[in-house]
Write a structure and sequence with these properties.
Elements (H helix, E strand, L loop, with lengths): L1 H4 L5 E4 L3 H13 L3 E5 L12 H9 L5 E10 L7 H18 L3 E6 L2 H8 L6 E3 L6 H10 L1 E5 L9 H9 L5 E3 L21 H12 L3 H16 L2
Parallel strand pairs: 1-2, 2-3, 3-4, 4-5, 5-6, 6-7
Helix pairs in contact: 8-9
Length: 229
Amino acid sequence: MECLNNGVNRIIVSGCDMASNKEVLELVNKYDCIYGTLGFHPTELDGFKDEYFGWLEDNINNRKIVGVGEIGLDYHYEDTNRELQKEVFRRQLDIASRNGKPIIVHSRDAIGDTYNILKDYKLRGSIHAFSGSVEMAHEFIKLGYMVGVGGVVTFKNAKNIKEVVKSVPLAYILLETDSPYLTPEPYRGNSNEPAYIPLIARKIAEIKGVSLDSVMSATSGNVKMIFDK
């Protein structure tokens, strides 16, 4: 695997619907370096069945499954069923709570509702592909979450996430790909992959004025703290 040649020796892959959740289980059982999270993404709820919650709870304690995700809210599209998204989100948070699992949260154009729901729970995890304000980043940190930073931070016009990275201590930053999307420069436009994680770390080091080694060490420790418990 190319990622291993680039110093990326552990990967967490996330499900978003029933098909991809089953693929996650296949991957984690096949490769020692791959771990997974299982969950139902807010934009993948067409045809969602109540029985899926039972399937999730039945599979969440696989030894290679480290969390519940990718779950959350997405109000980007006008025809979004927001109430269904909230219900599915909350029920997955309940499963995470009962099983002591961290979560990976998707939030697009829904930062306020995401925060208001999460503050009702005592969970830990990551706010994936964080796109909120500096102020909201610190509010999520207070709740017990880390800020997920991916390839967007390398984009020339990505002012917001760069400000967030500058403000948030390394102790609260996680590195991610969102593969196959959000590929970092200079490979933007191509399919993303874990081998590009060092490019994201290098940009964070530049923004914060610290060494690449310090970013890699801190973010690796953050992953262990959140997902190894």
